[in-house]
Amino acid sequence: MEYSCKDLKVGKCEGEKLVDGETMPLVLQPSEPNKNDIESLLLTLRNNKDWFDQMITKNSAVLLRGFDVKNAEDFNEIIETFGWEDIRYVGPAPRTHVYKRVWTANEGPLSEFIYYHHEMVLIKECPKKVILFCETPPPEGGETPFVPSFRVTERMLEEFPEEVKMIEEKGLKYSFTALSKNNTGSMRGRGWEDAFGTSDREEAERRAKALGMDMEWLEDGGVKTILGPRPLTRVFEGRKGRRMWFNTMVGMHGKELSSATMADGSEIPINVVKRCEEIIEEESIQFKWEKGDVLFFDNMALLHGRRPSLPPRRVLVATCK
Ligand SMILES: [Fe+2]
């Protein structure tokens, strides 16, 4: 679909890549310099809603750049324009509510790399879209790199056809340990009370069940959540039959608070995990955040992460069904 919209101009950004014929991210700018105000942008989005939505699926990542998007209120207006339903975040990342549908992105220390993931990949219903807004670009680092997920599957199949087949057949099993709120000395993640939105153990168990998790309470007041079997790859409608690397094997394998094994408990060969980590990095795409950037991710198609940065950095997020 090479249709372009007359109200937006296709631009370029440093770091963009051509992947299987599509530019990632697709940069969209004001058609004329004086049309960069928020009202013009909202009108443009309202008039081109369906087209814009198709572009997100087609290019996997769309970057609105050069518009005067100032704050969480403006960002929220942009989100509301599309009419996509909100989806509440569930997971270990510390996040703060900012305004209506807008939250801070992961508030973990800026010095840490947040490893590549599909947002809420382990939850039954995960967001189709993850939308980010850059209020304060970091002085150095702090990119939000992303990876076309199907490329990881393709390359893993080239190098490890047997292993991929085996893991696919068996499925994956994950565990994640959430400490108790009273016990989290560091910013390693939130306590289970915050993660499940309750301090009541039975209620937390009910909520965990509803999300497809089992729980084991630990002596120190924390809890180990176990999930599985979960698939290695998935194919989603409308995405060219691409097989997405829809798992968090590398992110959770062999960590202090998490694990990933095959669903029957057998270990995933370490060379497979290590090489997969390299492939993900090799396939990653990144650009430098600019103030006012709004980035739309197709969460079904992309893994994303966060590189370490110097402060200050403020990127806000909204997640949609
Ligand atoms: Fe994320």
From TrEMBL:
<dbReference type="InterPro" id="IPR050411">
    <property type="entry name" value="AlphaKG_dependent_hydroxylases"/>
</dbReference>
<keyword id="KW-0560">Oxidoreductase</keyword>
<dbReference type="InterPro" id="IPR042098">
    <property type="entry name" value="TauD-like_sf"/>
</dbReference>
<feature type="domain" description="TauD/TfdA-like">
    <location>
        <begin position="37"/>
        <end position="318"/>
    </location>
</feature>
<dbReference type="InterPro" id="IPR003819">
    <property type="entry name" value="TauD/TfdA-like"/>
</dbReference>
<dbReference type="Pfam" id="PF02668">
    <property type="entry name" value="TauD"/>
</dbReference>
<protein>
    <submittedName>
        <fullName>Clavaminate synthase-like protein</fullName>
    </submittedName>
</protein>
<dbReference type="GO" id="GO:0016491">
    <property type="term" value="F:oxidoreductase activity"/>
</dbReference>
